[in-house]
Specification:
It is a multi-pass membrane protein. This protein is mainly alpha-helical and 195 residues long. It has helices at 5-30, 34-55, 59-83, 107-110, 142-179, and strands at 115-120, 131-136, 187-189, 192-194.
């Protein structure tokens, strides 16, 4: 099984993209971020499809993968705008949880260097009661961690699109060389001619 540079690059980038998407999926699950969980789920499926298309020389799968990369970049730009409070978007809204819970990014309470303190409400002594959580001492605010995640996804998607285009073009050139009868020598065996 030979490996041309564009194909190997695409396999490598798909693998890296799959690992980064799985990491992001874990932290979105921990924060109960339902919209990103669904987006990551579809992204993981399409990345596996793109990886399969690259390994099996299926240009149609790579084209679907490339189209998804454009949508994935748009989704990550939206996430960046959401966490940076661009326009009417605000990170304090429940938009990413479909307004069914008050959860926010997992990084808001568990970021690097964050010290988390829970304070129970006075007069409420049950174990299941809600408590106020204060977070102090974070080395980096959670919205910037989310922006870095999305920025990384965008960079990988841009490099993947370049590698996918190279892989489809090189696959097209390879197929053209195989179907061109002027470059394929004729073989004769037992009185039969093969192309």
């Amino acid at each position: 099984m030979g490996c041309c540079s564009g194909r190997c690059t695409l396999i490598f980038l798909c693998t890296i993209q799959l690992l980064v998407a799985l990491e992001r999926q874990v932290f979105d699950f921990l924060g109960y971020q339902w919209a990103p969980i669904l987006a990551n789920f579809f992204h993981i499926i399409i990345v596996i499809l793109g990886l399969f298309g690259t390994i099996q020389y299926r240009p149609r799968y790579i084209v679907v993968y490339t189209v998804w990369m454009a949508l994935w970049v748009a989704w990550n730009v939206f996430i960046i705008c959401y966490y940076l409070d661009v326009g009417d978007l605000t990170k304090d809204s429940d938009l990413l949880t479909f307004n069914i819970s008050a959860h926010h990014s997992w990084w808001s309470e568990h970021g690097p260097g964050c010290v988390r303190r829970e304070m129970t409400q006075p007069g409420v002594g049950t174990v299941d009661s809600q408590s106020y959580i204060s977070v102090m001492g974070c080395l980096m605010e959670y919205q910037y961690i989310e922006v870095l995640h999305s920025g990384t996804q965008i960079l990988i998607a841009v490099y993947v699109n370049r590698a996918a285009a190279d892989a489809v073009i090189s696959h097209g050139n390879k197929m053209a060389a195989l179907t061109d009868t002027t470059t394929v020598p004729e073989c004769t065996a037992a009185g039969q001619t093969f192309l």
